[in-house]
Amino acid sequence: MLITHEHLRAFLNVPNGMKSVYRNPVKEMGEEGFFDVMSEINSNLLRITKTYAGSYPFANIAQRRFASVGAKPTVDGKMDFDLRTAFPGPKGQKVKVQREWLQAMYSMIINKHSNMDWDVGV
To answer: From which domain of life does this come (predicted)?
Structure first.
């Protein structure tokens, strides 16, 4: 969990060597189950954004590697997107729905071959 004056983020770090018992629940729920969970998260975050002008729910995923234990990470790839792109919103929502952003994130989580960090927040 990270709270700053700019962001509120909940992180999940999924190292490449992590036992599959911890990764399997995401795989087992399937893409639609993942979308259901993320939809609920999006709805909860939208309630927070009503209080803070200019805030919005977002998702982020990054592939990182470390030269050694304790070394600063090198980011090999990163994707940030407005979480509202994955779900139809209220009438008049300006953010266009493009489910492929969340589909890409799900695909990277279940097919990972490296250290992957992903988070959602406001």
So the answer is: Bacteria
- The pairs formed by 70-76 with CB atoms below 8 angstroms and a separation of 24 or more are 73/115, 76/114
Is residue 121 within 8 A of residue 25, CB to CB? The reply is no
Tokens of 88: 């139809």
Q: Taking each helix axis as running N to C, give the angle between helix 20-49 and helix 100-110, from 0 to 180 degrees, rounded to the nearest 10.
A: 150
The pTM for the full model equals: 0.83
Q: What are the Cα distances from residue 114, in Å, to 66, 73, 77, 85, 97? A: 11, 13, 11, 26, 29
Terminal-residue alpha carbon distance, the chain: 12
Phi, psi of 64 (to 5 degrees): -130, 160
